[in-house]
Write a structure and sequence with these properties.
single chain; 254 residues; mainly beta; Immunoglobulin-like; four-stranded antiparallel β-sheet; Ig-like_dom_sf; Ig-like_fold; signaling receptor binding
Length: 254
């Protein structure tokens, strides 16, 4: 623990807790006394952890690690609850819990949205992760702009991350001033007021592929994938096959 020693005389009595553990959770009281008055304030400290949703070969996995209190996981498909056998969280030596749940997924024709809800045992916090099973498919001509959709709507807080394979196109924080335009892989990238991302004048076949826009908030994680194909205007070489037919008449072989 530590305090801002150079700011105490200015009235800043804040206390810093470093490397917080589960044992540090609870209600803290800060009491100050000066010649004119005595004051006290209370702060409630809760310990949260990490959540993650990811695709596996045999289904979609939702996991949470290093959390407190004990978590539980539930699933819905297009808003309909999916019953799966619950698993018990694993507790480590620090008193933190980890839990993993995998939902088997079969190939389907319709668009499905899988929602994983992670809630604490005391119901004080809930985390939701959504993953659409379908991929948006877009085909454009060489040199055109394209708009990549991201989860959510205008006015929501949170962070956007757009990736192309293992490359990060853009990391956007709505609470921090961002440049209007950035450069990525030789093209210009812009974020619209609605949270969508515009890629300007795709001029290379290197820009064709699957883009993943991920939105993070304190309570949720959502993904939208867009597959982009670029028509280059190239044509296959024209080939002319000439078939010569020769007719032989009254030919005798000896």
């Amino acid at each position: 623990t530590s305090m801002f020693s150079d700011q105490v005389s200015k009235g800043n009595m804040s206390l810093i807790l470093k490397e917080v553990r589960t044992q540090d959770r609870g209600r803290y009281k800060c009491y100050t006394a000066i010649s004119s008055a005595n004051k006290e304030a209370f702060v409630s400290v809760k310990v949260k952890g990490k959540r993650k949703i990811q695709s596996e070969n045999d289904g979609i996995t939702c996991k949470t690690s290093d959390v407190y209190p004990k978590p539980k996981i539930s699933w819905t498909i297009n808003g309909t609850p999916k019953i799966i056998s619950p698993k018990d969280p694993q507790e480590d030596s620090r008193g933190l819990f980890s839990l993993t749940s995998t939902l088997p997924v079969q190939p389907v024709q319709d668009s499905l949205t899988y929602t994983c809800s992670i809630s604490s045992e005391d119901s004080t916090q809930t985390y939701i992760a959504k993953r659409p099973e379908n991929i948006n498919k877009t085909e454009i001509d060489l040199g055109q702009d394209i708009t990549i959709p991201c989860p959510g709507s205008q006015g929501e807080t949170g962070n956007f991350t757009l990736t192309f394979g293992s490359s990060t196109v853009l990391s956007y924080n709505s609470e921090t001033p961002q440049p209007d335009r950035i450069q990525w892989n030789g093209i210009e990238v812009k974020v619209t007021s609605k949270g969508n991302i515009i890629l300007h004048k795709l001029d290379s076949e290197r820009h064709a592929g699957t883009y993943t826009c991920e939105k993070l908030t304190t309570q949720s994680r959502q993904l939208i994938q867009t597959s982009v194909q670029i028509r280059t205007g190239k044509h296959e070489p024209f080939q002319l096959s000439l078939l010569i037919i020769t007719t032989f008449r009254n030919i005798h072989f000896c």
